[in-house]
Amino acid sequence: MPFARLAEATTPTAHIGLGLAAVGRPGYITLGREADLPPSRSVEALRERAFELLDAAYALGVRYVDAARSYGRSEEFLADWLASRPAADTADVVVGSKWGYTYTADWRTDATAHEVKDHSVAAYDRQRAETAALLGGRLDLYQIHSVTPGSPALTDKELHARLADLAAEGVTVGLSVSGPEQAAAIRAALDVTVGGAPLFRTVQATYNALETSAGPALAEAHDAGLTVLVKEGMANGRLAGEHAPAALRAVAERTGLGCDAVALALVLREPWAGVVLSGAATSVQLVSNLHAAAVDLDAEDLERAGALAEEPAAYWSTRAALPWH
């Protein structure tokens, strides 16, 4: 299991990963992103920004990097960064990617559809080949992207056989989940077996102060031996800076750190959280995010944060309405 390398790490930031969704393509739904990226969102400008973030993350102890086929050129940028550094210097980087969505925006921010979901065997075969062409033997983890309870990925035996073959090659197989029924998708995934053995070894879910509904299911996954990865710990910017609710700002003021660090610290404290992702678009944001490892939360802080949770349907409706900047 590649995550054993992270479990053995002693740096405070070893359990914080870097997600490349925000810098692998010109458009994304994070609030404030229009001010975070360079005026030119050309491929080369975002490649340069991705390299800057990867360099900073590695220097600060981050060892997990998260990409996806649908994150524009994120796999390409990551592959180029790895190739540009001595292999010995990046041998401890754990690389994860995801398949199941195809990027369709053609490097536009005003596209009608930015990505199209497809969990078929044909989509897996095509995207697995595309990922292999870029990341080759550096891929440690391959996850099905955004599984929901009705996804055919939970029942397709031919797909399960393909994924079991990939696991036999040494690549860890997992899934990410999304939507108001994350918990149901997680529990259904725990029942998927091939040859009597569990198929999935990781699960990646949205969990933050506003959306906590997956927590019990993530604890069950952890207890079953899966590594839990958390995405959107800052709720796509709703828990950062000026967008943060007053209760979170009060905790940030008491700790002397940013709302973003407090938001991620709330996730890091969960005993089942294996890797919590930063979706930083700038090095300044990344440094602030990594302060999460130093946030000391008291009982009053936890009470304030606990009152922020929304009903899952309301949370995901708000998320769906966020504009692609």
From TrEMBL:
It comes from the Bacteria. Residues 47-305 form the NADP-dependent oxidoreductase domain. It holds the Pfam family Aldo_ket_red. InterPro entries: AKR2_Oxidoreductase (IPR053135), NAD(P)_OxRdtase_dom_sf (IPR036812), NADP_OxRdtase_dom (IPR023210). This is Aldo/keto reductase.
